[in-house]
Amino acid sequence: MEELYCQGCGVLIQTSDPQAPGYTPASSLEKENILCKRCFRLKHYNEIQDVAITDDDFLKMVSSIRSANGLVVHVVDIFDVHGSLIKSLPRIVGDNPIVLVGNKVDLLPKSTNKRKLEQWLRSSAKDAGINVKEVCLISSTKGYGMKDLTEVIEEQRKNRDVYIVGTTNVGKSTFINRLIKQSTGYGEVITTSYFPGTTLGFIEIPLDDETSLIDTPGIVNRQQMAHYVSEQDLKLITPNKEIKPRVYQLNSGQTLYFGGLARLDFVKGKRTSFVCYFSNQVPIHRTKLENADELYGQHIGELLSPPDQKTLEVLPELKENAFRLTGGEKTDIVFPGLGWVSVIAEDVTVAAHSPKEVSASIRKSLL
Ligand code: GDP
């Protein structure tokens, strides 16, 4: 059989194993724009199918960039920088230059200072050992920043191939779809979805006679919240429009629950305000710290939801990380993939509870 690749995700088409990536019934091989069953279902029924692929395979595929010569465009989710910045990127891409793209800026409040945010992103990358040539902020759903980014790519690629890399769920497919539409006026070529791990192969999209834009598989980061929640809950915790910050004036001895997926205890400090940046669909409950455990025991999955029942079956237990924030700077307490809470660090002690595999951390305030 001639080797065929799915027009959706780029995976090698096969007709023998319905559970493995790339399966297509033999009867559909005649079609012009061939799709694997998974992409077909996604495209026509908006339904995700799980296929098994190991993290090692992802890394192996992506590592072939190392020996190539091109520009690397690393797309991160501005809402989950911690979960989407690929710390091993320098190892993966070797000497190839990197442009860092912060996607989903439409989720941040309109008043956000974009220049400051770019600087923040650049220094976050640097702290993680990633030196980047340029930083661009975009919204691939709304189109914001795409023109500037296209120019930056053109300038930086110096007539070489462009590799698009990112972890799953950062909006890489949406971004590439938009690039393609912009340059060719072509419709949907690559599948987009809520679920991580959808893009399984390399897809080459010609830029000119000699060079291509190459979409690489989404790298799975086990520290992403997305891996521990049901499809339904993922829709709730993934913001789909501008986040409305919710402000709580708290006294020490109070606790905030973010649904029932995370919790923040204000352990010690003067009365202060906690500004919460989460999907508008995640309810926040305030309670007394002394009652917090009991509330969880009695109401998890009900009053405290998400999680729904399906998530509860797989959700790791909550683990506590304590932080004492001093120095007076605005600081974010980050719950990767869920959101963050911003507070002025005037000797504030907090305990952040989050699912074990997705530990909370602190950073210099993003906004
Ligand atoms: P991929 O796994 O990196 O290819 O990510 P997808 O393109 O499938 O996108 C993952 C999710 O993020 C989908 O629900 C998209 O609608 C959403 N998404 C992608 N780009 C943006 C964006 O610029 N803004 C917002 N708000 N959501 C986005």
UniProtKB/TrEMBL annotation:
Residues 55-222 form the CP-type G domain. PROSITE patterns: G_CP (PS51721). Gene3D superfamilies: P-loop containing nucleotide triphosphate hydrolases. GO terms for molecular function: GTP binding. It holds the Pfam family YqeH-like_C. This is GTPase YqeH.
